[in-house]
# Entry
Amino acid sequence: MLNNIQEFYSILPLVILGAAILISVVIEMYSENSEKILPWFSILAFGSVAVYSLLNLEQNLEVLQNALAVGGVVNIFWFIFNIGAAIVCLLSVNYIKKYGTYFGEYYIIIQSSVLGMMLIAGARDLIMIFLGLEIMSISFYVLAGFNRKRTSSNEASLKYFLLGAFATGFLVYGMALIYGKAGSTSIDVIAQKFSVLNTDVLFLVGILLFLIGFSFKIAAFPFHMWVPDVYQGSPTTVAGLFSTAGKAAAFSALIIILSAFFVSSGNTFFKPYLSVIAVFSMLFGSIVAIMQTDIKRMLAYSSIAHAGYMLIGLAAGNSDGIAGIIFYLAAYTFMNLAAFGIVSIIEGENEANLNIDSYAGLGSRSPVLAGLLALIMFALSGIPPFAGFFGKYYVFIAAIKADLTWLAIVGIISSVISIYFYLRIVVVMYFKSSDLQEKPVINFSEMFGVAISVVLVIALGLAPGSLINLITTFFKF
Amino acid sequence: MENSLLLTYLLLVPVAGSIILLFFKAEDERIIKYFGLFVSTVVFLLSIYIYFNFDSENSSFQFIHQFKWIETLNIHYKVGIDGMSILLVVLTTFLTPLTLISSWSSVKKKVKEFTFFMLFLEVGMLGVFVSLDLFLFYIFWEAMLIPMYFIIGIWGGERRIYAAVKFFIYTMAGSLLMLVAIIWLAIHASSYLGGFTTDLEQLYKVAPLFDQSTQNYLFLAFGISFAIKVPLFPFHTWLPDAHVEAPTAGSVILAGVLLKMGTYGFLRYNLPLFPAASTHFASFISILAIIGIIYGALVAMVQTDMKKLVAYSSVAHLGFVILGIFALTQESVQGAIIQMINHGLSTGALFLLVGFIYERTHTREISYYGGIAKIVPVYSFFLMLVSLSSVGLPGLNGFVGEFLILLGSFKSSVLNSWWYTGFAATGVILAAVYLLWMYKRVVFGKVVNPKVEELTDLNKREISILVPIIIFIVWIGVYPSTFLHVSDKTTTKIIQQVQNPPKAELK
# Structure
């Protein structure tokens, strides 16, 4: 009995969020003021889950018949998802009105997507991964097409849905093959049998299909085709959610599965696949981003490149690499949320001001926004002392320790290329003058969201040890 | 007793100043200008205080302050100075207030941002010279790019965007390679030291134990990054663009301090960490340096733009410094260190003078001028003095550095040939040609351009900027021992580290 109560407390974050979804539905149905209540209610729910997760880092349990782990790194992920989602809600309060029609479902679906992410991050069973992934993905498909009257939004949603379903097909097929050979869906059992099964063709095909399915979700080359169109067509704040919490969730699944395998039989088996897609994602993302004229598309390609940097950590396959990716994900989440947040503030009605040229002279029109965006661009390009630099630093350390110095060098070449397009935003904002006199309207809520992200980017840059200590304490390798 | 927090204060004062500055109203330009000057003067006085408390008989690092920064990776905040960095620190703090005053009339837009970036830049530069942890050094090295990028990009000339982006990407490409080398070095040193560390003094003990080929790779990875900054031929192409497009204050800081970071990097990191590779590459790099000396001088000679001429002369002068470093003798390294200071003073002053006349006429074309000696006598006097110091006239500072470098490289056992000295010496002659020829065309002769008649001579503010620099130009020229003495023991130690590197203990 006590055991059940303990179990209940440990999954309380999931319960809170589940209850919040139901309550939100009720609020939306019966309240006239739902438009004002729902965003703040969601933020409250996300905030309390985030705080609860952070306070319960110490526990280390496997619950729901060993299908879900809680505590430690899982809670760090939960914290990242929920803070990210809370920031997205802050950014959305005014944006969603500017973007088009308001529906209360917007916040409800964000909540459900986060619930899905939390299941993925804690999963110890393939079924649980699949369940979480589908909850998250289906919510995302809806969010992408949120404005049904707009063609680009519909296109984004449909494209995301079709390609996402395709990737899920790979994933399920892979899981079926793995289950067929290993005789279990439990990740721990599969990991134990890995050293026996790693010569079995069907099992290996299963693993490969599984990796491909997730390569799609983390937006790695060559499974990245959906990214630019979906980011461009979706509401900007939603694109922010996809690229941060969504990507972190997909990475959390990869980390769980692969680190279980690494423990049992080292990473020599996965190294080639992961290194190759890492190299291509970095170079492809950075090079193509140079040619973009739309800031959201540019951020989309930059997101592909960042997936590549994080994959370096996985390819290294040591505990530094895993800790590095988790740090990188946290850093990237806050950097990108700030970037998308600022873009959403500057964006006018009917998707105006998304072209990079429309940022000309922003340095004098809106010094605060321009200053913050410049800071974020430097952070994204990996210049110290901001969070982005330490993310790269950690994964490079991991790569060099794993004798993958060449991969770190490719990462560096790609970083140099990427400086060009990040700096271009700064160049346009500060070095080019324009006739535009329009000043972006800044409201409290979105500025608050951006401010939280920027503060976290700076804090993680000045004291990266705080987070990396937490991760290494809890990450048992 | 020495106060270990002094260097940290030195970094914190400009940081605090730039933060306070953000709360000023952009319209209060006068207050902002005086505040910027006030902060940078405080930093200068602080550095002078450190200078007088510095013990030049002691070759080890002084005023060390350290604490754990990132515990997981054993990264420390560790700062300290020795006889080489103290001189560069004082040079930095000396030039910053002067450039701020010089920009009072030339920077007309966004004065607040300009002052902010100058102070920010000062933090970065000082940080590079005082950090004793490779990781900390890297952070300052990179962070300093941001303000310089904005200074060129916002307040620069016509092609400023191109120049700013080129400057940034060039430097970044080099320094990221260095980052890999730093990580690699720290990881491989950890097997000797029993733990991952980027502490420079620890690495001094073990890095020389690496085998020759490892040292070579690491030397190149660090060296390319520094060579870009110096700039050593053939990595110099960013320099003329950046210099020409940068505002005067930017050029002065760029020439005066930023270029020194490259040569400083060689002395502080490459030589003591990789002694075997340093002697291995010494003649190769010296040849590049000599190509730089002659090439820079020849290209400077044919410039029609005064600022470009001075920019190319930097390539030549820094070639001397590199030659001095890699000749690896006591005289030549001492010469290189003093030449770093000289170049900061002379070229800084040349850029200031070009900037002053540019403010009046908005052109830097040499052919526009001619015969201004009678119209602006004070200006002509200063230009002559500074040109002669840059040429290396005995009695002025340039001579001391170049003489020591040539003397040292002649005796050098590492280079072991007088050809190096022979070719480098032609650079001295060529310097006289291009600078004095420019001087002749600008100052003497007949007035060809009637507009030149309206030139006004230097005002009190401009003279007060130049006089302190001239004082040091003459001082170093007449009695260099004051400064040579400070770096003497440190130089001996660096040479010692290269010639007699620590040997592996038999285990």
The first strand of chain B starts at residue 62 and ends at 70. The beta strands of chain B are 62-70, 75-81.
